[in-house]
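re: that chain from earlier
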Amino acid sequence: QVQLVESGGGLVQPGGSLRLSCAASGSIFKIHTMNWYRQAPGKQRELVASVASGVGRNYTDSVKGRFTISRDNAKNTVYLQMNNLRPEDTGVYSCNGIITYYDITRLVSDEFWGQGTQVTVSS
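^ sequence. v structure.
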């Protein structure tokens, strides 16, 4: 099957930067659109950024101009570069996406989630 593993979270002061990584592993045939979500304490999970299998990228309004999503298809990895971080960016960040993988003799497409990584922006 497939696993998504995030890394790069941590504690940072307001105005600081972090780079999150989401590495996919397994018998991968193709990674389609990948997303970064975040969930702040007491709030619903929200979609932060998406990157298509081509070059299309989308961001929620609150992070436009500060966050950049990218992907390295050779490494099956998606990144989220976060600059000028604010306290309201605090939350658990999770990657998600649709991945087609080899299942013995056939190809299967399914949705996968990582375990999440904590980002805390505080002075």
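The mean pLDDT is 96.
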